[in-house]
Amino acid sequence: MAFDGVTIANIVKELNAELAGGRLNKIAQPESDELLLTVKTPTGQKKLYISASASLPLIYLTETNKPSPLTAPNFCMLLRKHLQNGRILSFSQPGLERIIHMDVEHLDEMGDLCRKTLVIEIMGKHSNIIFCNEENVIIDSIKRVSAAVSSIREVLPGKPYFVAQTQDKLDALTTDFPAFYQALSAKPQPAYKALYGSFSGISPILAQELCFRAGIDGEQPTAAMTEDDYQKLYHTFHQLVLTIQSGNFAPCIAYTGAQPADYAAIPLTMYTQGADHIVSYDNMSPLLESFYAEKNTITRIRQKSADLRRIVQTALERNIKKYDLQMRQMQDTEKREKYRIYGELLNTYGYSAKPGDKALETINYYTGESITIPLDPMLSATENAKKYFDKYNKLKRTHEALTELTAEVKSEIDHLQSISTALDIALLEEDLVEIKEELADSGYIRRKYNVGRHSGKNGSKSGQNPKKAKVTSKPFHYVSSDGFHIYVGKNNYQNEELTFQFANGGDWWFHAKNMPGSHVIVKTEGSAELPDRTFEEAGRLAAYYSQGRGQDKVEIDYIQKKHVKKPSGGKPGFVVYYTNYSLIIDSNIEGIQQL
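-> structure tokens emitted (595 positions)
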């Protein structure tokens, strides 16, 4: 799943075909490390998405728009000043580096024709978008890198731009057989590792594919390869170079079962067995958008929810420690019944104990067995009995208090775990709004206040009113294969609303057993019975939107909504039910239509 140099070469070819000669109509910066460029071309407007995210750097053409902040960031304003209405000359790639140069021609403030370059570096955590002038001097970058951050290269305004050579790799496009042989044979590694470790732009998956095409075991060490093996591998390698130079790409995604496993700019022939299959694409952009859409969404929302996750995790850890301590204290109270029996037996048989005895052996009339009761020799039998009754009463009071406290703490742990699961389910920023509200209502975060005016006895005076966030998030909406509408809550407030306001008594309610998860409602619309397939699909949704996501077997409770009750004083989304059906199902929701 590497965004390698060959993928970049495919993208460069596509961008030249689609955008070269077009004019930059709009420049937006939806996120701190993203650009969305709108380009006017003879065939219509095209959008170019560029991300320099450390976790998921990407570049591809898209039809999807993204909302931008009301105030454009400084880097975005700089690009608008210099490049707005500029004409894109070309896109290029140095060698097989994961770098794209976008050359733009525009008129400066004096009306003179100028040329600028936007350098897009797709290099994992070192990814960046750098704006340079004709002399290759940095004007600015979306991420500034000072000497304190990197001793290899500074990325700051006024500094010369250059590509940092941190790895001793060869250029695949200019390598002949002697250099190829020398590079691989010098590395005592498996063949595929030596291959991607020797040449820039070659990813591990591509190296494995080249070995497969050459009929060589990629795991065998280079020392075990014969001259013929090297010749075969070089021939396959050279064919890849010719493909890149001719631009004859064939992008595809390889699937293992229903899950996308890898992608490449050339056919992955090693994925051709069993449940594996290949899906081909005409261009790389739709492939990347399809492959990374969900991952990119999850990455972004995790960044935006980082503060909330930290608050929930801290509170969860604190409550779990408290609960563990209380449970250890609860175990200590289990001795209370023993002390009560000691006291009762001493009151009954204490007359047989002699002064100074350290123990009394007698019969436990509750079990009929012999029992030895430890005694304090300085006390009488009656005083020893009182001592045991005092211990019993103290432990009894402790047990009663702890029973109530542990129930409260366990409820809080369940509540926090349900919020943590809701954060995992969230896909959009608006999905976080209700979670923030719930955390504020529960006292974990402070709600912002609006300062306003309200009238008092002596006229108007200042006051503060809680600022309620506007909620636009809606539950997930699916349609079963049999046409029944299924709704899935994204958080506790939505679960509460779905179950107790939206659902009718005859609708069916689903939830993962004994774990945090969403309430799933199947609207029956008056149907007496649901098809088995709808039950299964609703069960899969309940498993997927729960802590059991990814498991092959998740137990799901389901029942008609009229049997689900809200406990008095219960947390949002928490319910009780006493009779239910159960099913065991996987959490794969492939093929269930989402509206």
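Residues 381-425 form the longest helix (45 residues).
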